[in-house]
Specification:
Structural class: alpha/beta
Radius of gyration: 20 Å
Number of helices: 12
Order of helices and strands: EEEHEHEHEHEEEHHHHHHHEEEH
Largest sheet: 7 strands, mixed
CATH architecture of the largest domain: Up-down Bundle
CATH superfamily of the largest domain: Dehydroquinate synthase-like - alpha domain
Length: 346
């Protein structure tokens, strides 16, 4: 299955299938450098195309300008010029760091992405955004630039740890909740089989999420309007992830639950549909029940890149499959805190 995404920054070929062993046919081995991380290299290096390989350290702590600078040093030593392709094979960190390095080295190299996690295949690898963290700010420095291609191969998911699968499922639920009620029902009816890596169901999940992302990004590549709905769950989620160190999927699930409760509190989302979303997050084992540090989370929201003055742009649900963006003040969030997190907090 293939799609084409065309935006002001370029045209991207997106394909779903068995790509790992067919990469060589889609690149010039004399002018390609492959970027991966140590975990992916350990599992798949023997199947990589015969090109130079740069290996990044795994983990969110290494999604930094220092990692980009190290790649730039490797590009320089390798003699990379503007006719080269940067091929990223890995999860969200690898795709972000490699794509940002490609977008900025020599003012822009072509990049191809082969995402290896569910999160990257349904979300992070598609859409042309890239970036790295800076101090405590997530994805603060980056660009909008479409890769030449994104090849999604579900076979990579057979080696995916369950927690990484759940992070991807959180993003799949996000897409369904904001833009596709039928997709939401699909996940809902198969939740028991989606708690752990499932290659039989991965294809339909990836296809449905890619369709949502293409429709949104084609209309608004640079997040000036419509693309903001893709941040559903991420405003609270990024703050919780930064303060409490929860895995990305669990933090985003908490963020979606809070945003849905806020939607219901504002009279947008029905109680029945709120219950459906909360029940699905529970069925997928995405819910966590931490005692959140109220002051620290609100302070993290204050420093969110989506803040405007004393307000933060929140993605809310009008119904399952339809979202909107509203500005909510930090004082309003503080006042509604106990309704958003229905348990004692510190």
């Amino acid at each position: 299955m293939e799609w084409t995404l065309t935006t002001p920054t370029g045209t991207c070929r997106i394909a779903l299938g068995a790509w790992l062993d067919r990469l060589s046919a889609n690149l010039d081995p004399e002018r390609t450098i492959l970027v991966t991380d140590a975990n992916v290299a350990r599992l798949y290096a023997a199947r990589f195309p015969a090109v130079p390989v740069a290996v990044l350290a795994p983990g969110e702590a290494h999604k930094t300008l220092e990692a980009v600078a190290a790649l730039d040093e490797r590009f320089l030593a390798q003699g990379v010029d503007r006719d080269w392709l940067v091929l990223a094979v890995g999860g969200g960190l690898v795709c972000d760091v490699a794509a940002f390095a490609a977008a900025t080295y020599l003012r822009g190299l072509d990049c191809g992405l082969v995402p290896t996690t569910l999160l990257a295949q349904v979300d992070a690898g598609v859409g042309g955004k890239n970036g790295v963290n800076f101090h405590s700010f997530k994805n603060l420095i980056g660009t909008f630039r479409q890769p030449r291609f994104v090849f999604c191969d579900p076979d990579f998911l057979t080696t995916l740890p369950p927690e990484e699968w759940r992070s991807g499922m959180a993003e799949a639920v996000k897409h369904a909740a904001i833009a596709d009620a039928g997709y939401f029902s699909f996940i809902e009816s198969r939740a028991a089989g989606l708690r752990a890596p499932n290659t039989d169901l991965a294809g339909p999940l990836i296809s449905a999420s890619i369709a949502v992302k293409i429709a949104v990004v084609a209309a608004d590549e640079r997040e000036a309007d419509r693309r903001r709905i893709l941040n559903f769950g991420h405003t609270f989620g990024h703050a919780i992830e930064a303060v409490h160190g929860l895995p990305h999927g669990r933090a985003v699930a908490l963020g979606m639950a809070a945003a849905a409760r806020l939607s219901a509190r504002l009279g947008l989302l029905s109680s029945a549909e709120l219950s459906r979303l909360l029940d699905l997050l529970t069925a997928l084992e995405l819910t966590a029940d931490p005692e959140l540090d109220r002051a620290a989370v609100l302070e993290a929201l204050r420093r969110d890149k989506k803040r405007y003055g004393e307000a933060v742009r929140f993605v809310l649900l009008r119904r399952l499959g339809q979202a909107e963006v509203r500005e909510i003040t930090l004082s309003e969030l503080a006042a509604a805190w106990d309704h958003l997190w229905p348990r004692p907090v510190s």
